[in-house]
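Action item from last week, closing it out:
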Amino acid sequence: MAKKNINNLTADELYELAEARKKEEMQKEKEELKSQVADLRAKKKDLEREHKKTMAAIDAEISQLTGRKSRSGGRAGGTSASILDFLASGESDTGSIRAHLEAQGFPVANFPQTMAYLKRTGRVVSTGRGRYKAA
């Protein structure tokens, strides 16, 4: 389209020109936003990678100091495993099991649910009210 003097355009032509310009500006703004979002996502990914490395180093240091594996490496050595190890020596009551878990540094907030899970899966057997032994 050849350049025309703005004073010689009709109202409809001015409106079409304004709409076209508006679309161009919106498209340009969208592209800028996409670029910013892509940059932020890349920055986030780098931070997550760095955070993961730092967390692994801290977990390794904690593991070295405590002699226990951290939970991030899998579920082995968790609350259930500690209970089963404790019950391998014989029958025990819930108070003793709970005290053992606390001494090992495990959270005991969900102790009843853990015992119910172990009982339901057949890994422990109830020998009486509040008394358990390994199956």
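Closing note: The chain is about 65% helix and 10% strand.
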